[in-house]
Amino acid sequence: MVEPHVADRTPVPQGRVVSALSPTPVDEHAGGARGVRLPLRNRLLPGAATALALFAGVRLAGIAAIVLANHLSGRPALRSLAHSWDSRWYLHIAEFGYGTRAHVLASTGAVQRDWAFFPLYPGLIRALSTVLPVSPGAAALLIAWSAAGVAAYGIYAIGRLLYGRAVATALVGLWACLPHSVVLGIAYTEPLLTALAAWSLYAVLRDRWLWAGVLAALAGLSRPTGFAVAGAVCAAAGWEIAGRRGRVPSGLWCGAVVAPLGWVGFVLWVGDRTGDLLGGYFTVQRAWDSRFDFGAGSLHFLKSLLLHGGRIVYPLALVVVATAVVLFCLLCADRAPLALVVYAGILLLITICGSGPYASKPRFLVPAFPLLLPLALACGRSWRVRPRNVLLPGGALALTSVAYGAYLMTGGHTPL
Asked: pLDDT tens for residues 291-303?
């Protein structure tokens, strides 16, 4: 169990329903105060510059390692950052629109269509490359890098609001050092989803329900797993409504209604294009071997790995997923806010019970930053007693993340 934070002893205002799974009011000096305006309006939150510098240092080192590895192997230094695997689909959609590209699998004859990719990222790429004199690939990287920075700041804001600066900084640092954080530096959608999710969840914790709903709707347009944000917003809203017997502001109702509209809207649009309004999108996803199989694929992978082994990416993927399960249990035991638990839980459930290449599953967990809160809390406690116990493992973790990211991009021979 986590030691009680000073916030836990703050008196609860009259008429306010608080539970172990809902955010509690906190003192400004201990990490924030409910009712204060969102920090982006004025200046950076105190201590955020250090956390953002830490994040930028680790991820810039990761990009430099990829560039160096490409140079040593005779590849174009920067091209892989914007033109790897799924990135090519996003760039094609940005330039030519939907319904213009398909791929037929020779092994099964399944037709993989571009409708499987959600529209927010390619739409932003097209808009930025139209406004600025940059190529779509450069625009894709600018958006991904900017979104990663915004996400890191949102993660810091949540950590500081709940537990203070030290834990918030550790949370950002851990997120930067994940084994698959390399996706935060390439033209993928994880940075965009995480940015929208972090600020939507922050808005929930601050009772900014309309903001939470709008950002959740945008998250639902960024990735198939974006509906996890809407699920978190709606769960937290439902808890508030039940706890306060329906006596809640209209903004809460509006936020809960708006939150799922992005994801639902695109799914229905794809269904309309395929001629099957409710099932068309899921038919498209099945062609990509993406479906909810209740863990059958994960069990098959585990059996194959135990019998035949595999490259380092496969056992490490299993370790990452297993660690995520343990961290989720700790997150629940630490009585984290309901919105964070639901968001992380949905992403973890999709990762474990979804089909598809197992080597990609750790990437699906990169946006699940609340899972890192138990580790960040432990780092915060250790930092106050002996900083060396945090700096040495943290440095080793950062070096490992940088090296492994370069390996995945240049020598892993496994799509992210």
From this structure: 888 888 888 888 8
Give the chain's end-to-end CA distance (angstroms, integer): 35
Residues 6+ apart with CB under 8 A from 169: 47, 50, 51, 54, 156, 159
Which of 106, 163, 225, 215 lies closest to 381 in space, CA to CA? 163
What letter represents residue 350's amino acid?
I
- Give the pair of three-digit tokens for residue 251: 């903004």
- Of the candidates 279, 321, 288, 284, the one whose C-alpha atom is nearest the C-alpha of residue 302 is 321
Tens digits of residue pLDDT in 14-48 = 333 333 333 444 443 343 434 444 444 457 888 89
Residue in this structure with the two tokens 């994960």, named with its chain if needed: 298
Residue showing tokens 């390996």: 407
Tell me the β-bridge partners of 354. Answer: 292
Interatomic CA distance for residues 310 and 181, integer angstroms? 22
Q: Tell me how many degrees the CA angle 227-231-235 measures, rounded to the nearest 5.
A: 170
